[in-house]
Amino acid sequence: MKLSAILVPLTFLRIAVAEGTAIVGALKEVHNVTTNLGNSVANWDGSMLGMVPILTENTFLLVSVIKGTKTAEKSEPLNLGQAIEVANAASTLVKSVNSTLSIIINAKPKFDKLSMSPVTLANLGLQKNAADEMSTAIISKVPADYQGFARSLVTPITNSFQLAIDTFHP
Ligand SMILES: *[C@@H]1O[C@H](CO)[C@@H](O)[C@H](O)[C@H]1NC(C)=O
Ligand SMILES: *[C@@H]1O[C@H](CO)[C@@H](O)[C@H](O)[C@H]1NC(C)=O
């Protein structure tokens, strides 16, 4: 086999990977912010002052999800290799969303004590809508045959938010 026959596919792969990284990068950022929020709530002493970083990180989360939607909307359609990378990043995000929202659900008594549960509920609603929009934007770039699978992959994110919203609903 000629060397060029190997090099050409490798070059293709590198280009493919480079193009896929915009959505992957956005998902990693959302994962990061989600994890930070979970850590802040987990370490929260229940004071009003301690709410400040939590509120800030809630805003960061919303902003990073909206940014992720924009990134996905601007993206070219993904090839299968790129879609698999995105799927990996999405399944990592599924785990951090589950973990962070579990922490928030468990902290509800602390939010109640400061009358901050309605604010938390409002944030959860905004974040859920934004996450749904980001998922829709990303799925639209996945090859048609894999869109059903992609949807099932991110459904737990919607479910986690719904569980948290139901918990905080008066
Ligand atoms: C992830 O979060 C940490 C802590 O806030 C920050 O220092 C880091 O730059 C973030 N990384 C990415 C890729 O966003
Ligand atoms: C997290 O995942 C576990 C296991 O699938 C599930 O039982 C639980 O309801 C999830 N919690 C949230 C907040 O999504």
Topology:
Blueprint: H1 3-42, H2 48-74, H3 80-106, H4 108-113, H5 117-139, H6 147-168
The chain binds 2-acetamido-2-deoxy-beta-D-glucopyranose (2 copies).
InterPro entries: Cell_wall_mannoprotein_1
Keywords: Signal
Organism: Canariomyces notabilis
What does this structure look like?
The protein is an all-alpha fold and 170 residues long. The protein has one domain: Methane Monooxygenase Hydroxylase, Chain G, domain 1. It has helices at residues 3-42, 48-74, 80-106, 108-113, 117-139, 147-168. The longest helix is centred in the first third of the chain and has 40 residues, at 3-42. The mean pLDDT is 91. One 2-acetamido-2-deoxy-beta-D-glucopyranose (NAG) binds next to α3 and α6.
Strand content: under 5%
How confident is the prediction overall: mean pLDDT?
Answer: 91
CATH topology: Methane Monooxygenase Hydroxylase, Chain G, domain 1
Total DSSP helices: 6
Pfam family, one: HsbA
Protein name: Antigenic cell wall galactomannoprotein
Keywords: Signal
Signal peptide: 1-18
